[in-house]
Amino acid sequence: MKKLIAGNWKMNGSLSANAALVQALLDDTSDWACDVAVCVPPVYLAQVQSLVQGSVLGLGAQDLSTQEAGAFTGEVSAAMLKDFGVRYCIVGHSERRQYHQESDATVALKAQRALAAGITPIVCVGETLAQREAGLTEEVVKRQLAAVVHTNGHCISEIVLAYEPVWAIGTGKTASPQEAQQVHHVLRSQLQAASQHADRVRILYGGSMNASNAAALLAQPDIDGGLIGGAALQAAAFLSIVAAAH
Ligand code: PGA
Asked: In CATH, what number is assigned to the domain containing residue 209?
């Protein structure tokens, strides 16, 4: 399966920094063996859409509304994202779950909105450090994925899933390739039980993936790509991860 490396810029960037970063990525596309995307803040979608137009670099967003349209101040709908050529949208990132109280049901609904608009949701699941230490990792990620399966039925084969242990995000601590593979395997089995097309679902690893640990993580049988935060803000680091994905 073709791997996917997706950058999550989070709340970073500026018109000038984005232009320089995207140009540096576009200068390198000839050797890419995987799919590559950047998930940018919504105010920069138009800018990055015009920069990546006609290239193999895909455009992504970081969140979308559970609502279709109407009186929801500050929200951005799936249809609006589609209007700007968005191909992927992160949903249920742990920072949304933590700081914006997004429940499993909310995340599942957002995935459904994205799919209905023809956008591939990158659904994030992952345990906190306390949950891992209490031996609850598998229970937590299975519960988070179950909500998305329940709401989306057979469409589950159209999502991208991302396993992001919360304790590894932005901390410099990465799950070992074996630890990550173990959880990815659990998620794969759960997807297989839900859909006969589950083998086409890409399961990304996220959490301090960088130029030096990417190859070992990406070599695991159920790790089909990466969701990259910090390292996605530097072209050289991001491109080394892309080069490790084949
Ligand atoms: P990180 O972030 O690579 O900076 O750990 C990953 C993410 O939050 O998607």
From this structure: 3.20.20.70
